Structure formats: C-alpha cells, structure tokens
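Example 318.
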Amino acid sequence: MPVSSPPTPAPLSPPAGGPPALRFDTVSKTYRSGQVKALDQVSFDIQPGEFFGLLGPNGAGKTSLISILAGLSRASGGSVSVLGHDVVDDYAEARKRLGIVPQELVFDPFFSVRETLRIQSGYFGVRNNDDWIDELLLNLGLADKAHFNMRQLSGGMKRRVLVAQALVHRPPVIVLDEPTAGVDVELRQTLWQFIARLNREGHTVLLTTHYLEEAEALCHRIAMLKQGRIVALDRTSELLAGRASTMLQFKTDAALPVSLRDQSRITGRIVQIKAHDATEVEHILATLREAACPVEDLEIGRADLEDVFLEIMQGAHA
Ligand SMILES: Nc1ncnc2c1ncn2[C@@H]1O[C@H](COP(=O)(O)OP(=O)(O)OP(=O)(O)O)[C@@H](O)[C@H]1O
Ligand SMILES: [Mg+2]
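Predicted structure in complex with magnesium ion:
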C-alpha cells in the first residue's frame, strides 16, 4: 500500500562525537539449547538522530534483536548498548533512554487509556506528565478515547496506545517493531507524521516493517537481516542506486534474442529485464528492434526497495 505524502528523510546529522545511539556488537542468540540460531554475530551502530530501518523476512531475527535491546531476553553472545549504557550491566540507564513499541499487543485490560499512560509515566519516575500525555493522545488520534477502558478499544487503537506508552517518558531512542502491521491507512499517516517530527527534533528511530515503501520513504539507512545475519547495510539511496535501478516490462509472443534471454524474467507472455541506466535501456530496445521482436505494452519503471530486497534475499548479492 502506498504511503501518500511521505515525510522526506532529513539529512543525516553528523555524529556529535559521543557514543552511538545504539550499538550492536557481535550479538548472537540461540534458542532451544542451540538448535535455533536466531542471530549470528550481528554488529552495527546507529548514530544519534538517524532514522534506521531493520528489514528481513519472517523469522530473520528482528524481534529477537529488539528483545535483547529491551532487556526482555539475554544475548547468547556479544553486547548491546544504548547511548553508551550496556543493556545488561547498566539496564536502568539504558531502559530509560528507550521507547519500545513491541510487535505483540500487550496491555492491562482494567485501566483506561489515560491511566495506562500515567502508570507508565510513574514507572519511569516522570511526574505531572498530563500535558505531554494530552499531546500524545492528540497526535495519535486518541484524544476522544482517553477515558475508554483498554478492553473497549479496537486492535488498531490499542496499537496507538502502545505507541503513546513507548513515548510517554520522551525517550531519545524510539524503537518500533512493525508498528503498522494490520492498522489502517489513517493511523499509518498520523503515526509517520508524528514519528518523523520526533526524528526531526533529534530522536533516533529504529524501525522494523514489512511495508518496504514505508522504509524507503522514511529511513536514512537500512540493514537487511537474513537468517540472523546482516546481508546488506547502507544508506537507502545507495541501496537503491547500487542495484538495477530500472525495470523494463513488455509482452511478446516471439522468442527473445539469445543475448537478452539470460537476463530476463519471463512469466508467460510477460518479460521483465533489469537495466542499470538509460544507455542499457537503449541497448535492450535496439537489440529487440534488430531481432524484429514484436513488443506490446512496453513499460519502463523504476526498481524500488522491494526489488532490491528480493534481489538481496535471493542471494544475488549476499
Ligand atoms: N522464544 C523462542 N523460542 C524458540 N525459538 C524462537 C523464540 N523466539 C524466536 N524464535 C526463533 O528465532 C528466529 C527469529 O525469530 P524473530 O521473532 O526474531 O524473527 P522476526 O525477524 O522478528 O520475524 P517476523 O518478521 O515474523 O516478526 C525464528 O526462527 C523463530 O522461530
Ligand atoms: Mg518480529
């Protein structure tokens, strides 16, 4: 689903010389006495102010990494720190710098929305927080739901409360584990506008999502995880530019010239050919013309992050 009017990623602010916002240092995680290797020596830093995307197919290890960051699970090896504070040795300092929106909906059904947010503020020792709570409710479209009991909310509204809960103590580092899974277009728009504003104001954001157009629109840099290993990590623009950036698609009943056949994806009458630049597009069209290969419904489109993701996950560049 397209993200209409996505916020433009702000330029990456240079690191201020302090510690990284998040540091993952050779993090490994095994489950079931070593039978499942969910994370295998994962290392990367996220700088303060970055909007960073962590992408990967189901089971790649994204939630495992976030659970270790949140202190909900222990790494089998390596370490994780938040603004220089180790999440195990210095848990309280690390945790208070983090706002985490979990993938699973967990909430206490007996409290109202406002009570839930007040309790969470108290947990972080923040008093007289109602002004900020009101701003959160307003920005997340929950202003008229403040007195609703949590169990009276729909699934999407509960997710909004989880986002508010994560932000209640104004954490400098915001972590969102698939915050838009199964939620409506309106919440996505509201959520991204708000999160992009917080990022412009200096908050660091780590996002996992399966909606690759969201990641493409929002993230400065992207890491791709496959079976617990990082298989790509670069600025979003570099990831897009470094691969085939143009996709030619047409229909034909004729056999393709041999020189094109190897580089084409053929599905019935539909032929797709990747090209890196305009010269390559011209070359492909000239080859088709010289071979007198009849072409219908020719389209030339830009390859997007989804094409890049599939290319990387299929192992072409892993
Ligand atoms: N508590 C657990 N016990 C055993 N195995 C687990 C546990 N939690 C996760 N795993 C396994 O670890 C691997 C990584 O799972 P994880 O939840 O981190 O993936 P993910 O990238 O978040 O996937 P998704 O996109 O589906 O949310 C999977 O093989 C999963 O089955
Ligand atoms: Mg997950």
